[in-house]
Amino acid sequence: MNDLVKVSDLSIRYGNKTAVKQISFTLPAGQIVGLLGSNGAGKTSLMQAMMGLIPYQGQIEILGFNPQTQREAMLEHVCYIPDVAILPPWIVVADLLQLMCGLHPKFKLELAQQKLAQTIIPLNAKVKQLSRGMIVQLHLAIISAIDAQLMILDEPTLGLDIPARKAFYDMLINDWCSDTRTVLIATHQVDEIENLLSNVMMINHGQLVLNESISHLDERFIGVRYGLDAAAQIEAAAPLHRFRQMGGECAIFAGNAPSNIDQLGQTFRVELADLFVALAQPSMEKPHATV
Known about the structure:
It is a single chain. By secondary structure, the chain is an alpha/beta fold. Helix content is about 30%, strand content about 30%. It has eleven helices and 14 strands. Helix 4 runs antiparallel to helix 5. The longest helix has 15 residues. The C terminus is likely disordered. One of its GO terms (molecular function) is ATP binding.
């Protein structure tokens, strides 16, 4: 499997503050990777470094290109939506599509027009006349009409209602993804994307605390719902995270579950949202669950 992205010992600093600290990972072709982390965890800084927008220490290779020294060549094969999507407010939508034809050699005009036809965005409207949700839809239609190998999305559906978000994810799966392309998507809408992902990475305080395929999460993490009679044994086993849910107390274990866990309560599959909360706990030491 070809690696489209290679990151090694990457650190990003803003003055005395370290936003990303010595993280390494690869992204093979054919994946949809969720990048999860709390606000300020380092997600946006990582994506900006991958796009060559900010200085960094370490090594980044995108499709064989160095983002700092070969950015123009790299951008022919990459499409990117930042966390704040900015389009010229004065431009007419139809003119923006024509402009994209001149700006990006792999932009497919007819494909963008087809995607916009599935929305209520008028081609003769100026960007400044569109609602926030419409602007996001316009940006997504443009980006998804680029015949790239790597798509990097930072909170792409922010501002969209539920039907529009579902339509975007359907488009991503059915129209864009393939075994030669990879998507890296940062989002807070963990529940919505869990079933779409092939892999997940989690960043906490600039460090990569999880890099795992979705299919392997069940092998690494297990949850148990237990009663008061098992509380002491659960606590003694040092779970990764404890929380209360309807039906009782719950605990999540990461590879250190008690051998008699089935006797202590009802075990369950750990949802990605609960795992995200568990690994983002600042007061607990986290395992680096890398592939």
